[in-house]
Write a structure and sequence with these properties.
Length: 142
């Protein structure tokens, strides 16, 4: 882990405050914000899984989508996401796909699991690859 600056700590405290606001609104306690290289807050989000009835309504995913829509690739690459908890696999993939350059988080996934012990979800059964000749057509033509 890299050493955090005072600016990092200030923004991380804001992510934690957003997490508390999400909890107070009846959602899971997760909050995130996106900051440019000048320390300016570009966007903030909170978890809204329950209030939106959407299992993908994680703040990190919402900000990754925002970044992909609103930031040029060079601006995304130097932006920092501050988040109250280490992003889950879904959010981490979205962050990578959006081109964001840095993520600073408060709680690790392991620390969260100690605070909120819950049985892991049952893994889905996957079958494939299949129908290669048909599946490749959309990628080869167009």
């Amino acid at each position: 882990m890299s050493v955090l600056t005072e600016t990092d700590e200030r923004h991380l405290r804001r992510a934690i405050a957003l997490a508390a606001a999400a909890r107070d609104a009846g959602d899971g306690p997760f909050g995130s914000l996106l900051v440019d290289t000048d320390g300016r807050v570009l966007a903030e989000e909170v978890n809204t899984e329950r209030t939106d009835d959407d299992i993908t309504a994680h703040p990190e995913l919402k900000l990754a989508r925002w970044a992909a829509r609103h930031l040029a690739a060079d601006a995304a690459a130097v932006a920092t996401m501050y988040t109250s908890c280490q992003p889950c696999g879904m959010c981490a993939t979205a962050i990578e796909r959006s081109g964001l350059g840095r993520v600073v988080y408060a709680l690790s996934a392991e620390q969260l699991a100690q605070l909120l012990p819950a049985p892991p979800p049952a893994p889905a059964a996957y079958a494939g690859p299949a129908l290669l000749a048909e599946a490749r057509v959309p990628f080869e033509t167009g």
